[in-house]
Amino acid sequence: MVKIKFINRTTNTIASIFLIVFVSVFLYIGFNQFQLPTLFVFTKTEQTRAIILETKMIPSVKGYWLQLVEYEYVIGDSIYRDSFKAGQRQGLQVVGDELLLKYSISNPRRNKVIGFYRHSKKKMKPIGVSNKDIENQN
After folding, report:
1. Where exactly are the transmembrane stretches of this chain (predicted)?
2. Region of residue 63 (phi > 0: left; psi between -120 and 50: alpha; otherwise: beta)
3. Do 29 and 49 sit in the same domain of this protein?
4. Fewer C-beta within 10 Å: the chain N or C terminus?
5. 96 and 67 both lie in a single domain
């Protein structure tokens, strides 16, 4: 008689936990436009304001579009330039608006956008609506 040896339950449990953790990390990174989060562990930080210099639309997954926002900020005598991808959660960014940044004192190139300041007074029309429809609403 041939005995069949099955994998014990602890191996299945460990594999299941690993799979759940892996899928959770992948979903978190995907939810943040596949950008790794900026962490400031054991580092002193400061806050500063940055000015949006340029924006352009870039394609994303499944036909969606994101806005690539380039901004500039000054720390001491140095001027730094960086960019981030703005999605629906961040809203439409306009050139001339300001951002609130958190940056590392030891390495000012490491920064994270933590706030938005709207200075533009432009009335933004919705995408996909003609000017006639907007005029008829007013």
Report:
1. 12-31
2. left
3. no
4. N
5. yes
Q: What angle do CA 133, 134, 138 make, to 5 degrees?
A: 115
* CA–CA gap between residue 129 and residue 63 (Å, rounded): 19
Extract the runs of DSSP E, i.e. beta strands, from 4-129. 45-59, 65-75, 78-86, 98-104, 111-117
Report the percent of the chain where pLDDT is more than 90: 44
The pTM assigned to this predicted structure is 0.65
Can you tell me the distance from the alpha carbon of 55 to that of 46, in angstroms, rounded to the nearest whole number? Answer: 25
Nearest C-alpha neighbor of 84 from the set 61, 120, 44, 113: 113
Q: Say how many C-beta atoms besides its own lie within 10 A of residue 93's C-beta.
A: 21
Domain at 70, CATH number? 2.40.50.140
- Is 13 in the same domain as 55? no
Read off the tokens for 93.
């960014």
Lookup result for tokens 């300001």:
98
User: What is each CA distance from 45 to 3, 77, 102, 106, 116, in whole angstroms?
Assistant: 63, 18, 7, 8, 18
Decide if 81 is inside a domain. Answer: yes
Q: Which domain holds residue 20?
A: 8-35
